[in-house]
């Protein structure tokens, strides 16, 4: 036990890791942060936390932090430390020079889901108001962009329908493509509590994740599907519900478009969606599919929770639509205990989408082609806005390789480690003439940068994050920025170096502008957040206290929309040369590419990525537990150690991507979701063989 005594002061702020958005009391003695205590009045966590938020904040003072700006003429040259003025003038001159030479649309940005709403809003404003194009994208491209598309098309809004409290009234949970025990630990605890009280759970996942069987919990059904077959499994469940007459006809008649439902019902009733036909495609026994469907349709309040195992597929958007169809079929929308709930990965990935980071949408998910919406911004910003959607991240990289995209401002995102097909990302970055990396550390992407602008941690700034339940939480400055500027100030300085003339003096003014221009945020201000603690959007005149549950009296789009969901097999196929399927995910103590958690004591628990492999698959290859193996795909190869695990299904292997040495994304393919380009990280055909190590 370490006796820390009574702290001199404390500041309430929000965790900067996952989309649960836990509130913490940062306790300080003088200027020294001595501990993070979960805040008992935090509405998302109620005094709970996990090992990341509680202990892994030490990266803020890590010796690897870069605190001075740096520039270089070419990526072959060494970095040169310069003043902020010099770095910003260099960056501005280069970016403007590229636009003069190659055109207005030759440059763009990647916003950060780690940064605040206010910072993200400013970066997309920089793109639209200063660069004069819509070339802005976000890491949601590689995680939940199919959620934005699928829920937008069916329900009319691109976000989860429930608050976290809603799980307390749930009777039957479908958990698909998500492992909350590792990725959303505090919400997983609430889910487990409800399961211990008697609720049931159907887990759809190739792995036997913790929620299939852990202390006092046994899933009613585990459907261990073959990776890449989500659409078929969801359709089979819908097939049973429709053909056995288990749907909620009153809900569908009253709340949904009946003509579209009729078309969908005819489609889904076809025998190609039957459990027996689906068993052949997915490997899930027909009897289990049938039993799971009956349980979900008749078991009381049904809620669906899902994660990246749904979205990061070539049919990610189709599965999200299928999930929405299931919820509408069973009338599980618009009250406590039900709903469709994407478990968002990053602390502010919901917010970065809300704030207009996508190249086709202004803040509040309004299309750039909409003249009335552009008029709002044109009046407030005093500039014309391009009405053509800009480039997505993969399009930026393709255009860079082709020679038409030349400059990138990348804030808080390490695309070389996180995005698929590492070789292609590197080729795109290498082809650009100005890459500005704005980050805490010299990350992998910075190897290709010409300007490095030091970033600030969540402890060094004011602002807001929006969590997976649309809750807007305050982030408060615990310590002064070590580099001199919070990230929103750096973006403003860059905009002004390019001639913008912005003069925000506090992030609350940026939030006021967001409220002025975005109807779903019209009632949000720092005063309101101070008074209420937090609010869930939409928060406006119609919903002054925010909106814990969506689609209560009607869908945001009017009538709920059923859309047919034809299963199309991924192009990525296993075969004699690559007989296993690789899927990827996270582990409790580490976070994403590990830039923060690897620089804390959390690395003692997990200091390398491992390849989980079923005992049979290991035995036939002569692989022992802990042994080095070579993991090879059609895209590339890497080495890591094997972990023999009964959690795996035969034929499926699994690894995490927290350590740059592993280079998991050298292996992954460049297939992506048909609607949003979200990469298919979850299905890669691989071979595993013995190795002597790296
Ligand atoms: Fe909460 Fe997620 Fe932070 Fe853990 S990582 S403390 S669950 S917000």
Automatic annotation (TrEMBL):
GO terms for molecular function: 2 iron, 2 sulfur cluster binding; 4 iron, 4 sulfur cluster binding; formate dehydrogenase (NAD+) activity; metal ion binding; molybdopterin cofactor binding; NADH dehydrogenase activity. One of its GO terms (biological process) is respiratory electron transport chain. It comes from the Bacteria. One of its GO terms (cellular component) is membrane. Residues 8-64 form the 4Fe-4S Mo/W bis-MGD-type domain. Keywords: 2Fe-2S, 4Fe-4S, Iron, Iron-sulfur, Metal-binding, Oxidoreductase, Repeat. Belongs to the complex I 75 kDa subunit family. In the C-terminal section; belongs to the prokaryotic molybdopterin-containing oxidoreductase family. This is Formate dehydrogenase alpha subunit. It comes from Primorskyibacter flagellatus. The lineage of its organism: Bacteria, Pseudomonadati, Pseudomonadota, Alphaproteobacteria, Rhodobacterales. The chain holds residues 264 to 957 of 979 of the full protein.
